[in-house]
Design goal:
It is a single chain. The protein is built from three helices and two strands. The chain is of the alpha+beta class. It has one domain. A hairpin with a 2-residue loop joins strand 1 and strand 2. The chain is globular and about 45 Å long. Required for the transposition of the insertion element. One of its GO terms (biological process) is DNA transposition.
Length: about 100
């Protein structure tokens, strides 16, 4: 993941929170979880999107929409999918489900 992507996610979260205050907490959490899942997929695959690597363990295969009800509101998440892998990847989503759901 490039530094630009990290700054973009942080900037987006900061803008949401500064404009909407606590009302924007659900949107900021949505941005955070989507970014965490992308980072997790890159680490799991051993390569970033469109990157060629000897250590690559599979391929990114789009996203699957998922709604999650949380204490701060309903989140619209984009869960990254992988191809050629059988192991469940999304620890970030499992953590969010166990700690933020109502």
């Amino acid at each position: 993941m490039t530094c630009d992507n990290e700054n973009t996610a942080i900037t987006a979260m900061a803008e949401i929170l500064s404009e909407q205050g606590f009302d924007g907490l659900a949107s900021a959490l949505e941005v955070l979880l989507n970014e965490l899942m992308l980072i997790e997929r890159e680490q799991y695959l051993g390569a970033a999107a469109y990157e060629r690597s000897e250590g690559r363990r599979g391929h990114a295969n789009g996203f699957k929409p998922k709604r999650m009800r949380t204490r701060v509101g309903e989140l619209e998440l984009q869960v990254p999918q992988t191809r050629c892998l059988s192991k469940k990847m999304s620890r970030s989503l499992d953590y969010a489900a166990s700690n933020f759901t109502s």
